[in-house]
Amino acid sequence: MAEDGQRIRGLSSGLAVILTGKDQRESPQKSHLISFLDDIGYQSVERTLEHIFHIPYKAVGPLPTPINASVIHSILKNDIRKFQDNQDTVLHNRDGICIADSGCGPNNVTIDDASICGDIRIVKQPLILESQAIFSSARANVCVWKGKWMYEVILETSGIQQLGWATLSCPFTEHKGVGDAEDSYAFDGRRVSKWNKEAKTYGQSWVVGDILGCCMDLGLAFDNVRKMAPGLGYYPAISLSQGERCNLNFGAHPFKYPIQGFHPLQSPPTVNSLATHLLQCLFRLLELQRMEKADSTSVEKLGSLKRFAPIKELFRSIAHAICEEFFSMVDMELGSMEYVCWGPLLSFLMDAFRKQPPHDYESLDGVIDLFLEFQGSRMMFQHVISSLSCSCKIATLVLTECPFSGSYIFLALVCHILRREELMILWWESPDFEFLFEGFLSRKGLNKQDLQCLMPSVWWPGSCEDVSQESRMMQTTTTLSGAVNKIEEMHQKLCCLVIQFIPPISPPQLPGSVFMTFLQNLLLKNRGADRNLPPPGVSSISVIVSLYTVILHFLSEGFAEGDIYRWIKGTGTKVGDDVGFLHRSGQRSFPVALFLKNDPHRTDISRLGGSFNHLLKSHPANDGETEVIQWEEGCMDDGETRVTHSTRQKPCCCSSSDIDFTGITRDPIQLRFKGSRAYCSPIPERSAHVAAECSAGSLNDDMVDKPSSSGQSEHEFSYRPLQHHLRNIPTKASHLSSATLREEELLDAMLLLYHIGLAPMFKQASYYMSHQSQSISLLEETDKQIKERACGEQLKRLKESRNVYREELIDCVRQCAWYRISLSSQWKQRGMYATCKWIVELLLVLSKMDSLFIYVPEFYLEALVDCFHALRRSDPPFVPSAIFVKHGLTSFVTFIVTHFNDSRILSADLRDLLLQSISVLLQYKDYLVAFESNAAAVQTLPRALLSAFDNRSWIPVTNILLRLFKGSGFGTSKHGESSLSTLFQGLLRDACIHDEPLFSAFLNRLFNTLSWTMTEFSVSIREMQEKYQVLELQQRKYIVIFDLSCNLARVLEFCTHEIPQAFLVGPDMNLRRLTELIVFILNHVTSAADAEFFDLPLRRLGQSQEKINRGMILAPLVGIILNLLDASLDPESQNDLLGVFSSMDCPVTVQCGFQYLLEYNWAGSLRGDPSATRLRQLEQFSDLLRIRTESGAAGKMISGGEVEVDDDDQCCICYTSVADARFEPCSHMSCYGCITRHLLNCQRCFFCNATVLEVHRDDEKTV
């Protein structure tokens, strides 16, 4: 053996550090320790053991051969004795703390039940707490009076929580808690404040998964902390709002972020240090085994370096001896197993597995095999699984570690562990199975500071930042997308394992029963999660999103496990394994009995027709009667516009030129009944040329970005497959559990998950996208103003405002980028599109059957509409808007236009949702084309819009009509632009002409609504004139009412242009109401005491006065007058427009109004508009009106004034006409004009409130 001082090629004998290039890339700090000698042979066994057990060189004398367990145990005795001697020093440092025994052990820190105020529930031991009262507070059973102490809190929710310390003198009430009294200190990350009687801004906002270290020491966060004595110390204390959860770690588990100098309140087990040492010894043994099995190592390349003694013969005995000591040691002290498993053991398993690919599956399997030989291993693996679940909740993405960052390593480790059937059973039998499953599906939230670390470089369109920022941000988002894909891939693998698992219970169950039970329980637990104040116990939003993503991948991209696929096919489906459920062509089916089930998971879900219990009474349905409804894909679309997975033109989610023609079922929609077969009313069958199947190769290459494997080949993941697979599946279906997984049930659950989890996130993403656009506009406008002003105080304020706008913009850009990364990858958008197509077809089919349609859950419709618009708003767009609807979603247009006024949909909010969808889509020409080419829209939309103009829906209907009329009014067609939709304008005109009662009711509501909005507008003006300062909310209200008034006036203008006979032919009531309304509006617009004040609130930030001014309301008034003047030339015109205006009882007001219209500065508003040439016609009418008014006044003077009317004969409503109409049956009287107008809105008498059945004029003519 070489001597210590001898050198070989410049290296001394003993241990050498070898760092390969690959090791440098994985971990610069990581190195391998090996021994070397000359070229003669291996290092001795004694030196090998010294390295493994980390003892001094030559501390082990010559050993007998072969090496057995007793030799290893004897080597370990000295180490064990050394660690035991060190415990006295550790215990000596715990002065200044007192733990009260609460029945969990003298040294265990927990919540003192006697201190609880409110209602606090222990979700999971040791201390995951949840408040079930409005505000709950509690103290722990430990107090400290000197020293440095800490505990950690893991946030399970991110609402209002006050975490910190309090004395016994701090009172807890329903409204006050920790930090609200003098001797208490707390931090609340929701309000970003620290509390000590009063709040002060402190720290940063927190998110779910954050870990807070609560430390007690002078000067950390608070001043003047009192020094206490034994028994009068500070207690760890918390206050939680309703539904808030947190995980308190007083020291039962190792701290995630220990702070030097601060001690845990609960001392760690005395064996922890020794356990850590033993696991380090075992890891060094594994490292030697790895080097020995390596095909090529740095040692062989150096030539002169030699390995330790061969490990193959020694591994078993050394490893077994280490494990014997390890298990005997952790069993000696209560609580030590849990602490060691959450700390050193988990670190050891991760090191053995390797945190970065390629993972060492062989070493990990060897360790698991070794551990399972010992009696305490089951409890140990339970703690390991719990620790891995918790680690997934708090794992943070680190940009430099991507794509294998965040919770990836913990998920990869647990997926491999759970491929063992016995460990999967162990997990499933745990009472915390579902809680831990949710933990694995959790992901830590990100706050503003987290996003800043992940995306240091920010760029946006039009940015003046460095050009390189764009490429750096693109690289960052690509990297983060890869990390998210890896985590989602692990979620899918874990769920596949759970689906594949067959629980060892009777009766036998098929794969999927465990997963479906978990899914149903999770949905049941999250009932009410979409409320403004969710009930306690709901899941984290990240769990819902992850589970939704998994199911979407299964249904859209297919299942990776072929064995699973055989057991989860949809009803009557016969296609290849390579086509996802949502993309299958041909016949589709759905078990409508799912809607009729009377079980606790579904009965409280609101249905389109009302509550489930109400429907059972009013429209009873037998859930055993109708089993399955079947239809052909695309059967609800027109033959010319039909796009399916079988047609030559594929939907946007799939496209291919490969066509495989097959047969088609002759009856497109079928109902399958138990014991019999029947069909619903037929729908025109499909033509044979659309019967092609959608093959696996139908996905465009530019659309496919399925998550790949995590860098390993499949055989690596399959090293330890579930041992049973499907070998014990019984053949008789009668003995199988009803909980077997079905694709249709997965689709149903996925929609509910989308409704409670994804919809709020897409809404938030939409908010940030909108705010980003606004911030860009504000920033550009501010830069423009800065260039125009070179100095002064205003320039300083502009620069300060610019900095604020820029910071907000940068935050919005990061938020939008993160939402794109996490929600809008290409395969998710493809799946969402296919989901929309699938669900809208289902709803259209069911709408043909009233008895089933009313039982459809409301969330089906809500998820459909929200998912559609989330895809439409995606940035970058999923597909161009020109084909978004045309190639696959024409049925969506059919559904919304035929159901926004459907009385079977009981919820007015849902009908408004459909109406809002129409309003939004008609803003864009590409979508308007889809409406114009849709037969259902052409046939039903015009009449439905007119009938929907009521007290609730008049705003969206007005917006829709305005968009259809765009460009057809006075001053709206600049540079010769044509109107937006001549087709729908003609259809609306025809509907008004041919359905006179419908148009009369619509026109009456239009008059009433415009009169109300102008009255509110006038009131708002007076309120702001009376107040010195205009509030932002008041200004916003002012602007909204003004816009609504302008829109309603435009609709009225269209009516006078397209249906002038409604005003000029027959009774003049409509014409009189119209002229009264024009004069009313002119009076309010022109009589403002301060004209400048009138326009000031209309100047929105970032918009010029050219776009927002009083001309917006004056232009449609001019258009109305000009339209009626043109129509008056028609010989069929009966009513005298000039005479009605001149007969108004306020001639001065009328003349002033017309004079204001003529003197208004139309040159700025009508620049480039051909309407300006018609103002001469208005001037001529004004002159004629003045002449008529003056001649009428002169005639009255000649005749001696107005003829006196007897008071008994005068109408006591208007006091201007004779009471010539008698009401039946009450016999009260008024003038005919007053009662006719009154009956348009109310059928009761003016005077006695009796119902008016008939009206008789004095000439006995009955109306």
From TrEMBL:
The keyword rRNA-binding does not apply. This is RING-type domain-containing protein. GO terms for cellular component: cytoplasm. GO terms for molecular function: ubiquitin-protein transferase activity; zinc ion binding. InterPro entries: B30.2/SPRY_sf, ConA-like_dom_sf, RKP_N, RNF123/RKP/RSPRY1, SPRY_dom, TPR_RNF123/RKP, Znf_RING, Znf_RING/FYVE/PHD. The keyword Transcription regulation does not apply. GO terms for biological process: proteolysis involved in protein catabolic process. Coiled coil: none annotated. Pfam families: RKP_N (PF19322), SPRY (PF00622), TPR_RNF123 (PF25576), zf-C3HC4_3 (PF13920). It comes from the Eukaryota. Keywords: Metal-binding, Zinc, Zinc-finger. Residues 1211-1245 form the RING-type domain.
